[in-house]
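Support reply, case 0932

Customer input (verbatim):
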Amino acid sequence: MEIKAGTLYIVGTPIGNLEDMTFRAIQVLKEVSAIAAEDTRHTGKLLQHFQIKTPQISYHDHNRLSRLPEMISRLQQGQAIALVTDAGMPGISDPGYELVKACAEEGVPVVPIPGPSAAITALSASGLPSDRFVFEGFLPAKGSERRTRLETLKPESRTLIFYEAPHRLQQTLQDFAATFGGDREIALGRELTKLHEEIWRGTMIEAIAYYSTREAHGEFTLVIMGAEPTELVLTEDALKAELQVLIGQGISRSQASRQLAQQTALPRRQLYQLALTIPEPTDNESDTQSSV
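Our regenerated output:
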């Protein structure tokens, strides 16, 4: 392939096994003007292995605001830059998103060079439904923010994917069990593609017991079964009543339809059409609801 001037290349790199590096990724890293790396020391080992001598630029969460103007300027001057993360596809739970967004706003071409992703790798081997899923990345570290996020996800019927550090694994599993229930199925991927790769499957309670007697090592990817749709009386009157309650709480018809679709497994479009038949709450109704 021909490297184009003034282009940002989003280059996927191995999440553990260097043999997962693609020929295209190697070519791009060799021929661009510079490589923007999350950790230059970590990426340096990868470059050394493949005999790539392209200079690196440090670009990570702590310097992204000061680096962004410089990166855009370089690209606008005609340099081709490759963006890499420590492992996997850039822009997934790292500051690469902001650089890509800035390029899009400035009209700078962006070309993805696909590579491994821990989330998709774990999902593919989890044994849990993979036709519909939600990637949540890392949970907030603070208790109140974490609880709010988990409560929001409680009715989610799609398979859930999280990242977690080993020192927080046990607490996260406890939080999952408290929110989703101890019998919810979970698969834990650890050291994916590496020598000591492990994919553990079981219930939330079993996972807590398993890792209470073992020291957690390596970064974890957690894949959780989605919630069973809430059993509601699916008459049109019952559905309209549910929608009317949601709309009366101040959320839009679209949001109410989406929320009820998650609970009932009914098509959102069908519920939205039903929501359109519900009149706007009157001022008296709003006052009454807010005072209850």
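We compared this against your earlier run and they match. Two observations from our side: The first helix runs from residue 23 to 31. DSSP finds twelve helices and ten strands in the chain. Please reopen the case if you see a mismatch on your end.
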